[in-house]
Amino acid sequence: MGATLGEIVSALGGELVGAADLWVATMAPLETAGSQSIAFLAHPKYRSQLESTQAACVIVAPALKDAACERGAAIVTPDPYLYFARLTQWWAARTRPAPSCEIHPSAVVDPTAVIGERVTVGPLAVIEAGAVIGDDAVIGPHCVIGRHARIGASTRLSAHVVIGFDCTVGAACIFHSGVVIGADGFGFAPHEGQWVKIEQLGAVRIGDHVEIGANTCIDRGALDDTVVENGVKLDNLVQIGHNVHIGEHVAMAGCAGVAGSAKIGAHCTVGGAGMVLGHLTLAEGVHVSSGTLVTRSIHKPGLYTGVFPFDENAAWEKNAATARHLYSMRDRLRAIEKQLKNHDNDGHSQDS
Amino acid sequence: MGATLGEIVSALGGELVGAADLWVATMAPLETAGSQSIAFLAHPKYRSQLESTQAACVIVAPALKDAACERGAAIVTPDPYLYFARLTQWWAARTRPAPSCEIHPSAVVDPTAVIGERVTVGPLAVIEAGAVIGDDAVIGPHCVIGRHARIGASTRLSAHVVIGFDCTVGAACIFHSGVVIGADGFGFAPHEGQWVKIEQLGAVRIGDHVEIGANTCIDRGALDDTVVENGVKLDNLVQIGHNVHIGEHVAMAGCAGVAGSAKIGAHCTVGGAGMVLGHLTLAEGVHVSSGTLVTRSIHKPGLYTGVFPFDENAAWEKNAATARHLYSMRDRLRAIEKQLKNHDNDGHSQDS
Amino acid sequence: MGATLGEIVSALGGELVGAADLWVATMAPLETAGSQSIAFLAHPKYRSQLESTQAACVIVAPALKDAACERGAAIVTPDPYLYFARLTQWWAARTRPAPSCEIHPSAVVDPTAVIGERVTVGPLAVIEAGAVIGDDAVIGPHCVIGRHARIGASTRLSAHVVIGFDCTVGAACIFHSGVVIGADGFGFAPHEGQWVKIEQLGAVRIGDHVEIGANTCIDRGALDDTVVENGVKLDNLVQIGHNVHIGEHVAMAGCAGVAGSAKIGAHCTVGGAGMVLGHLTLAEGVHVSSGTLVTRSIHKPGLYTGVFPFDENAAWEKNAATARHLYSMRDRLRAIEKQLKNHDNDGHSQDS
User: Fold this and answer.
1) Cβ-defined contact of A217 to B29 (cutoff 8 Å)
2) Which three-class secondary structure state does DSSP give residue C227?
3) % residues pLDDT > 70 (chain A)
4) In this structure, what is the dihedral angle of CA atoms A130, A136, A142, A143, given to the nearest 10 degrees?
5) Catalytic residue among A242, A267, A343, A348
6) Within an 8 Å CB–CB cutoff, is residue B312 touching chain A?
7) Domain C108-304 is classified in which CATH homologous superfamily?
8) CA of C185, closest CA in chain B: separation in Å?
9) Can you tell me the distance from the alpha carbon of A266 to that of A352, in angstroms, rounded to the nearest whole number?
10) Separation CA B283–CA B301 (nearest Å)
11) Contact (Cβ atoms closer than 8 angstroms) between residue C150 and residue C132
12) What angle do CA A148, B32, A145 make, to 5 degrees?
């Protein structure tokens, strides 16, 4: 495999400083790059690695061009991290086998399903009645596409993805293994100490260019649909409740969760294990830190955090025990302040 | 599809105010209901929506009958939310295709498995030796029913559910895709810096009317069984450790977890990402807030919470840094109180 | 099934006090053991249960030999918990059916896959091109072994496990249902308000004797591999990000997570729902408590915790509200201390 620097620059642009026929076998981080690797330097704080790296070629920003060229070949580009991202895509397209564009004979495809051009359906996949699969889509082994579900063009589902009935997935999406779209939302009416099921009559609508990580779940709406807009990226083991609305280009890290009917504005991010309670609204551009539970709506963009800081257990135990008396500490503080103020006043009156 | 108000009231009861032949096409929330929708008003705080809704008919409590009738048709019932729940069930039963009551030819069913009457087994499901499937059960595509597992009558498993060997599931349960029942509990004996596996010899016993969300896991017991009683509702991505006992009609929201051997009393609820540590006991009627870690047993019903409140990151950082000095702050507070008391005493002695 | 005490001691060692032909039908906890059960007493704090247990035989440490023998048969061994672990293994091997050592005819095995001796491939499993399955391995129903993936000898995969292309799994591993190895790591370059995918070109390398719980995910690396060393034990619903390195004999409980590029030293443990942020390093022997978010590297072995203590909701509300003013409380405390110090100084100067 591998590529010459000339091939790379011709495909992706950038200014090449060095020999166009220099060949690189792998992409690698600066630290572990060998003499046949191409690496990138995205952040000035890693500049010191530039001197020690063994990489044959480094992708750098213009400000680091001179430093990079002192040590070997370089590709100069305004945004090295973006260039790196595109290089990984170009690299993967060259090195990974193309989809077969065939329906595996072991797949169970309902005769009423509509399958587009050049679709790949993996072994033992199930495509139910009335489902529609767009051109160039790839349906992995053991996927289940429910009745009347729609998968957009060029969308790729890894093995073991379940798309529930009536749900729609846009174009150019990537869903990883174990994703479950369209399970019932969690809705019950309490009645005499028991829970009466509210059948979930909505579906899930997912836009284009959405990527969803392994074992992540997005529930169908109770009456209206759960909606995930274009360009959203969800990591693994994320839970999206019924009737949630996730705006464009939101990103959520692993183990995050959004409870029912919450509205997440465009360009929000949620860190790992961050949670948003139900029926809340997050404005565009809100960033929730890892491990933070959002308990009320946030109307102002910015970074929000709520985590008890970790410590050696013995220190934490003392501080945590005290945390249970915080309110009374504040009362005591007030009492002292009042006492001191009175005392001062007394003092002043004596002085006068 | 759709239904007339007369059909609805004849099936579900309630007092109809309006034309029995008025036809509604969809169920919808008050806010988004169109002129062919039926909606419900469950809580007086949404009363203002009654005036603005376009719904053809609104389900209301007697107290709101007059207000509802001013604007159009109404169904009056003591508990509109419960009525709504039942209406979704009736609606789903009318609009969704009935199970095929057939064993799909691609399913792999061991000849020693016992399959009840009118059972549906989806494509590519696997039913192992000695498994027993109750009447009217629905086994989704790609489900695996382990050897000697038992599935109760009318239980429905969505696609990709795994029921481990020897586990039992009651009647009228609903398990969503990706549920794993009966994986090994997490048990190891430490030995010379390594972990020696404790084979998990128990199973999982699940009662009737239990609903389990997508990708939720319930582990088998080490020696005795893990037990989930009747009517329990678990949301998606919930983790139930080995030998846990969950009492009747408990509900747990998404990403909640219960560690091994904990006992959760009947009618408890756990909010999203709430966690209960191992070997603890929760009394009946304990409610754990979202994001709360329960670190000791709770013997008194009530609502329990433990979350560091979130804030703008800069404010949080200052408060969190201080939280690591809470204990010393309390010491300092005490010292001041003592000093002031001594001072006062000095003052008093001078006064006297 | 069952076994005589003689058979047990002859297989696993230990000093038998009692009749070698005494037969036990089940293994059970002390509390629920019946008169045909064998139980164990691992910790002196449960000693009181020794008197009340109905067990036919109790496994005890030498210090409790006399107490155990007063009530019936006993097996005396230095580490009863370890003995119990080994007994469960011996018991399971006797009572569970052996793997069939056959490739089920419904499995889809690529002709270029290399299948070892005595391998079991369950119904409807998929083994892709170039995959290598070691001797005595068991591949469960519906598993997918990606192209060029390698599964070590005697490794057992339960139903519905996905091993991504190019990933390697060592020998004698146990992966439970729904495990996803080698989904793409969560990597995107921001560009004009959108996310540009970084194709994940690394894989996952897993050592020997690794056990992974149901629905747990380990992502493939961006450029280098994600690595899990020998003897690691992960519980259910655990998330391991790309390029994480997990040292030997680490154990992580359910719902734990490790973000990308973190390095977890050997013999660390992470409690349930414990989280480690990306790019951090945990030294060997670090123990993270349940529910704790690790936000900076830890270089010293020990137990670390960070959780807001839970309380009755009303008390928590007051304390949590105060927690948002912690920093200003510290300022006020300082001001008081200063004032008192000045006051004292004033007093002293008056005294002088």
Assistant:
1) no
2) strand
3) 98
4) -50
5) A242
6) yes
7) Hexapeptide repeat proteins (2.160.10.10)
8) 20
9) 64
10) 6
11) yes
12) 15
C-alpha to C-alpha distance for A13 and C337, rounded to whole angstroms: 64
Q: Which chain B residues are within 8 Å of C97, Cβ to Cβ?
A: 147
Helix or strand or coil: residue B83?
Answer: helix
CB contact under 8 A, B201 and C79: no
Taking alpha carbons only, the member of A85, A54, A58, A80 closest to residue A69 is A58
Which residues from chain A sit within 8 angstroms of residue C304, using beta carbons? 310-313, 316
Residue A242 bears catalytic tag: yes
Element (H, E) at B157: strand B156-157
Q: Which tokens in the block code for residue C256?
A: 């734990």
Cα C320 to Cα A121, B326, B327, C310, distances in angstroms: 53, 13, 16, 10
pTM of the complete model: 0.96
Which region, left, alpha or beta, applies to residue C39 given φ > 0 means left and ψ of -120 to 50 means alpha?
beta
Beta bridge partners of A16: A75
Chain B nearest CA to C235, separation (Å): 6
Q: What are phi and psi of C303, to 5 degrees?
A: -100, 130
Rounded to whole angstroms, how far apart are CA atoms A85 and C199? Answer: 7
Q: B89 and A293 in contact by Cβ < 8 A?
A: no
pLDDT at A347: 57
Contacts of B201 in chain C (CB under 8 A): 27, 88, 91-92, 95
Backbone angles phi, psi at C256, to 5 degrees: -75, 165
Tell whether A141 is within 8 A of chain B (Cβ): no
- Gyration radius from chain C CA atoms: 28
The domain limits of chain B are: 3-95, 108-304, 313-351
Tokens of residue C262, six digits: 């973190």
End-to-end CA distance of chain A: 93
Task: Quick: pLDDT tens for C290-338.
Answer: 999 999 999 999 999 999 999 999 999 999 999 999 999 999 999 999 9
Among A126, A147, A259, the residue with its CB nearest the CB of B254 is A259
SS (H, E, C) chain A: CCEEHHHHHHHHCCEEECCCCCEECEECCCCCCCCCEEEECCCHHHHHHHHHCCCCEEEECHHHHHHHHHHCEEEECCCHHHHHHHHHHHHHHHHCCCCCCCECCCCEECCCCEECCCCEECCCCEECCCCEECCCCEECCCCEECCCCEECCCCEECCCCEECCCCEECCCCEECCCCEEEEECCCEEEECCEEEECCCCCCEEECCCCEECCCCEEEECCCCCEEECCCCEECCCCEECCCCEECCCCEECCCCEECCCCEECCCCEECCCCEECCCCEECCCEEECCCCEECCCECCCEEEECCCCCEEHHHHHHHHHHHCCHHHHHHHHHHHHHHHHHHHHHHHHHHC
B213 in A contact zone (CB under 8 Å): yes
**ipTM of the complex model:** 0.96
The residue behind tokens 């992960």 is C234
The whole-angstrom separation of Cα A222 and Cα B84 is 11
Domain C3-95 = CATH 3.40.50.11220: no
Asked if C89 and C49 touch (Cβ cutoff 8 Å), the reply is no
Q: How confident is the model at residue B42 (pLDDT cuts 50, 70, 90)?
A: confident
Distance, C-alpha C256 to centroid of its chain:
9
Q: Are C310 and B304 inside 8 Å of each other by CB?
A: yes
Backbone angles phi, psi at B24, to 5 degrees: -115, 140
Q: Which residues pair with B219 in a beta bridge?
A: B183
User: What confidence tens digit (pLDDT) does each residue in A216-260 have?
Assistant: 999 999 999 999 999 999 999 999 999 999 999 999 999 999 999
Mean pLDDT for chain B? 95
**Minimum-distance CB partner of B305 among C28, C177, C313:** C313
Q: Which residue has the tokens 């013999």?
A: C267
CB contact under 8 A, B178 and C174: no
Out of A239, A309, A333, closest to residue B333 by CB: A333
